[in-house]
Amino acid sequence: MKILFLCTGNSCRSQMAEGWARALKAEAFEAYSAGVVKHGLNPLAVKAMAESGVDIAGHESNTVDELPVTEFDYVITLCGHANENCPFFPGKVRRVHAGFDDPPALAKGVASDEEALVHYRRVRDEIREYVLGLPEALESEG
Length: 142
Hints:
CATH architecture: 3-Layer(aba) Sandwich
Largest sheet: 4 strands, parallel
Structural class: alpha/beta
Mean pLDDT: 92
Low-confidence stretches: none
Shape: globular
């Protein structure tokens, strides 16, 4: 089973989801992530994931067109913008929306990275819990 986590910029939430999926569910499915556009990997997302023992520092921010795989069983959108602007995927792909808050938006205007990381950690942990329920949770969606 191939799952794509799709977000606006493939910088934070979708990268976290891919990282968790590869760390926790590698035997259950192949995980990929992409963005509707490409914003680059967010360093605070990398730091928050590293705190939990998951290294995403080697990930790259990609658009769907840059992925090595073109057919997915599921495309999971992680933000409203990606859900509304999800590209067309041929074949039997099923789309599922699982929205999460945007850590960079939540952290806008904070005084330090440490203050910002509070938001990144919360969303990281929420995404972890979601990924732990996969792929079983997807079966009930369809």
